Amino acid sequence: MSFSTHIVGVGGYLPERIMSNDELATIVDTSDDWIRERTGITQRHIIDKNQGTSDLATQAAQQALDDAGLTVHDIDAVIVATTTPDMVFPSTASMVQHKLGGKGFPCWDIQAVCSGFVYGLAQADGMMKGGMFKRVLLIGAESMSRIVDWSDRNTCVLFGDGAGAVVLEYKDAEHGILGSVLHCDGSYRDLLMAQHAHPGASPNNDRARLDMNTDAAGVAAVSMKGNEVFRFAVTKLGEVVDEVLGKHDLCKEDLHWLVPHQANIRILNATAKKLKMSTDQISITVAKHANTSAASVPLALNDLYRKGNIQTGQLLLLEAFAGGFAWGANLLRWSK
Ligand code: UT7
To answer: Which of 4, 131, 134, 168 lies at a 20 to 30 A Cα distance from 288?
Structure first.
């Protein structure tokens, strides 16, 4: 045995309100058929106007702590991966710490959009290996409904709100996180972005139409050249899988589970084809919660875990692709 970082608790949370494709079709010129066929999405969850991203994150975190049989007092750090923090500052992670009843230990947010959780796992693993922390609570949480342009059918149909969390523990035990690879190419900024705007500056971001929050300091609207993002994502996700496996002298056939970012069922199917994996080996949750950005990967992990599908020693690959472009993957052997 040797020391490594292990996932010892998993949790997820989706806000109560469900918005169907049919409901969306009353807001923009779209249809249930188009959305299902082009994306695989059937519904998304929408945060309540009285909730913030930190509330979603806290729910997921509490479930992960319960699952680990731990409390916040056993935790040495909280990291929240989010693009949609409650406020510009303080960090969402500090709010989660407080809501969980913790105090004193470090908390911070990281921003790598849909790749935030994958980046966060790599960061936490590195810090734990470096001896800084024994236990870290890592959360991916988003309220994408607050930054989409609800008049743009090209993007608003794609996103939803939610949170997923893991408790990480550095311990002397078999298996655990083997390693991660991360990439970014900032030259692709314009293909997928959300420009910040001051209140009232974005007439398209009429959140009142959806009775959502109205208190945030500013608004931003997601814009995307979907086709180009799609092509790049499929290529880079294939490459990053080869890269991380190669670093650990493993091959595609060794993989038991793929836990990918949930943007589009067609991207997941194309990745499965490249990896020669059966779709049964892929955690697919995009249908029920759409693209929840940084929450996608931990929500997909939570779903797979709660179904009782993951066995000790199995090889899992987590991967994501995001605006930036920022992408990456984590490789681990399950050992909870
Ligand atoms: O999370 C970060 C990573 N994000 C992604 O990976 C997203 C990647 N991109 C995608 O998932 C897909 O490109 C989309 C789902 C965004 C779009 O699918 P597509 O097959 O690439 O469609 P398209 O953009 O080529 O559009 C096809 C048609 C267009 O009409 P015309 O120009 O052919 O007449 C669009 O205007 O579909 C139209 N369209 C819609 N129609 C009904 C676009 N959005 C909608 C809609 N409802 N919601």
So the answer is: 168
Token duo for residue 98: 């407080």
Burial class of residue 50 (count of CB atoms within 10 Å of its CB; 0-12, 13-18, 19+): exposed
Q: Does the Cβ of 227 fall within 6 Å of ligand 1?
A: yes
CA R_g for the chain: 19
What CATH number is attached to the domain comprising 237?
3.40.47.10
CA distance 216 to 223: 20
Taking a C-beta distance cutoff of 8 angstroms, is the pair 223, 194 a contact? Answer: yes
Concerning whether 107 is annotated as a catalytic residue, the answer is no
114 in active site:
yes
- The pTM for the full model equals 0.94
What is the whole-number distance in angstroms between the Cα of residue 80 and the centre of ligand 1? 30
The boundaries of the domain holding residue 228 are 1-336
Q: What is the pLDDT of residues 209-266, one digit of tens each?
A: 444 444 444 577 999 999 999 999 999 999 999 999 999 999 999 999 999 999 999 9
How many residues are there in the chain?
A: 336
| pLDDT value at 204 more than 70 | no
Binding site membership of 153 for ligand 1 (Cβ less than 6 Å): yes
Domain count, the chain: 1
